[in-house]
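Work Package 3 (structural annotation) set out to generate three-dimensional models for the target panel prioritized at the project kickoff. During this period the team completed the workflow that converts sequence records into discrete structure tokens, so that structures can be stored uniformly alongside our sequence database. As a representative example, we reproduce one entry of 275 residues exactly as it appears in the project archive.
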Amino acid sequence: MKKTGNFDQSDIKFVSWNIVLAVVVGVLFLVCLVLWLRSYTQHGVEVEVEDIRGMVVAEAEPILQANNLRLIVVDSTYSDKVPFGTIVEQDPKPNSHAKHGRAVYVTINATTKRQIIMPNLQDLSYRQAETTLRGLGIIVDSVYEYEPSEFRDLVLDIRMDTASIQPGDKIAVGSKVRLVVGYGKGTEQVDVPTVVGLTLRDARSLLLSKRLTIGAVSYDEKKVEEGAVQYIYRQEPIAGSKLLEGETVSLWLSTNLEKAVIGGTQHAEEEDSWF
């Protein structure tokens, strides 16, 4: 038997056949792996994505599930041109194709109107107030209500229907409001009401009903805990005084309710002294 180096011919054939066999097995393994992956991932098998826009989620989910697709809500928006709670966008797009098990991502129209927090517009010019409100998506009535005021053309109040909207109140986008605008002092005298013990919100409404406005406001506590209520414990002029329509009443506030009660008692005694 012939020797070639340290190996004879039979050894070389054995090694060569093993290499060939390993290559063949490797190729077969790769082919089987590719075929299995194609089958497992359903390569090339797609379904048409239904148009689910305009439907609510409860309607759209069974339609997608029938084609082995999943629905996932990823965002919401607001439009008054489509029904609340309906799907306005979807990805993949309608009538496109997707693999089984694919997620369809949707954006829905909010179920309620978006709300904004009413800013403090009192004592701004009505033009500034209009611009601010329209920028927030609020409709401003072209008709104004006029009340006596120390200053002309400044906003005294904002009303929706007959209700007064105070700074910090929530209001739906698209709501229509009317501005109450000052036209200067009136010629008639009015009695100053008692506002001691009231909150600033309630005092503003009461004074406006008497055709008076709030003047300087002072706070005992510059910073208060969230949700803490501040009460009026002093007012100038005192209750029972006479003012011209449109004049102002200065107020002092504190979170100490007892202080407001004592202030109210003092004011009552001062009011009695008028008679």
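DSSP finds five helices and 19 strands in the chain.
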